[in-house]
Specification:
Distance between the termini: 66 Å
Radius of gyration: 24 Å
Structural class: mainly alpha
Number of strands: 0
Length: 187
């Protein structure tokens, strides 16, 4: 691992000689562990997937055509480069996460499929609709994000601007409300 204090000198060398293989290698060694840590902190545990994402991150950086001197002129501190790499890695990770998710189908299509397979499917849809009527629009939105969009607690927290613990508490309360409503309807 390259010491962080060496990064400004590496960037200076790349500005002066953008084709320096040794500078690019040190650049990679300086930023690689930081991007791996970021991806691991996001929850990516598969080693091959992490390596792929890191490679894609550096590829995106290189596609920005950094060896054109006019683009490097006035490049801020190494922190800006690190932030660029972090944002790129996080976006690539999110894209990969979205591609892994099960694709959803429109509600009307789901009803048609369900009613074709099970004789009581329409009754279940009506019952579920009555259960969901008891929820506020915010609560329905929270359930949609969690169970239809498959967002993690951390992603929900980020999008709602609250802590993951608060998201967990809200989900618990919504589920409790649904259970209570279901038991009231069953009586």
């Amino acid at each position: 691992m390259v010491a962080w204090s060496e990064v400004p000198a590496i960037l200076e060398e790349l500005r002066d000689n953008p084709r320096s293989e040794s500078a690019w290698e040190r650049f990679y060694l300086a930023f690689f562990p930081r991007i791996v840590l970021l991806l691991n902190s996001l929850g990516e545990q598969e080693e091959e997937s992490v390596k792929d994402l890191v490679q894609q991150t550096f590829y995106q950086f290189l596609r920005a055509n950094p060896w054109r001197k006019d683009q490097w002129r006035g490049l801020p501190e190494a922190q800006v480069v690190l932030e660029y790499l972090r944002v790129t890695a996080k976006n690539l990770w999110r894209d990969q996460l979205r591609s892994r998710r099960v694709k959803t189908i429109p509600l009307e299509e789901a009803r048609e499929v369900a009613s074709g397979r099970e004789p009581f499917a329409e009754l279940e849809w009506k019952e579920n609709a009555r259960l969901l009527e008891a929820l506020t629009p915010e609560e329905r939105h929270l359930l949609k994000l969690r169970y239809v969009e498959c967002l993690t607690l951390e992603e929900l927290a980020e999008s709602l601007g609250i802590s993951a613990h608060a998201v967990s508490t809200r989900l618990y309360r919504v589920q409790l409300k649904l259970r209570q409503r279901k038991s009231a309807l069953d009586r």
